[in-house]
Amino acid sequence: MLDLVLPQRCVVCGKRSTQLCSACLSRLPRIEPPLCERCGTPTAWPVRRCRDCAGRRLAFASARGAVHYDDAVRAFIAAWKERALRRLAAAAVSVVIEVVPPPKVEVVTFVPPDPDRGLKRGHHPPRQLAELLAAQWGLPVASPLRRRRAAKRQRGLSRAERRRNVAGIFAVKGPVASSVALVDDVFTSGATANAAASALRKAGARRVEIVTFARVVR
Fold first, then answer.
1. Which H or E run includes 180?
2. Tens digit of pLDDT for each residue in 46-67?
3. Dist CA 188 CA 68 (whole Å)
4. What residues have CB less than 8 Å from 21, skipping those under 6 apart?
5. Could you read off the pLDDT of 102-150 as tens digits, one per residue?
6. ∠ CA 80-190-200, rounded to 5°
7. Which of 75, 113, 132, 188 has its CA 20 to 30 A from that of 84?
8. Non-local CB neighbours of 197 within 8 Å, separated by 6+ positions
9. What residues contact 205, with CB distance under 8 A and at least 6 apart?
10. CATH code, 28-215
């Protein structure tokens, strides 16, 4: 009855369907090799460091994303995060499993939410993604990261401003495994992921691998 009154539509194409129709799922732009070995940026040929990450001090050992952050992926993530369409997480996980090799780590964790935005949304997609991926990989989930304070939105900030905005924002509570997969929904400049990885490293993690559903490719 509810479907007759409020028919479900694909969040990308708008056609009456599931929350993400099979055609749009298949068309999400997968990130394919060759890639930068360190930061995961698509490159013309395999490299250990690309011009995007060369010269930067990175706290993480590697970063891998599943899809390019284009208009379709932006609509998908907006529906997942802002409209709380939690079933979209299953689609995100299926694509990550398809594209990203399982990390060789002991535990999976996630970038924690901003307290205000977390309360407003009522759910946290990176945590949901981390829990579902950990189940697929047969790994435990831990949540040692905390935010010391709220930060300004990263949208619209330059790369340098993004780094300053999140510098020292994360703290770690409790013990940390030696190797950790750190999960987030989107990798934009890498500032947030690097700040979180830095906190984990300072707390004792020797290796941090970043895994995200989407990635902004310059």
1. strand 179-187
2. 999 999 898 889 999 999 999 9
3. 10
4. 10, 12, 13, 15
5. 999 999 999 999 876 655 667 899 999 999 999 999 999 999 999 988 7
6. 95
7. 188
8. 58, 59, 60, 182, 205, 208, 210
9. 176, 177, 178, 179, 180, 197
10. 3.40.50
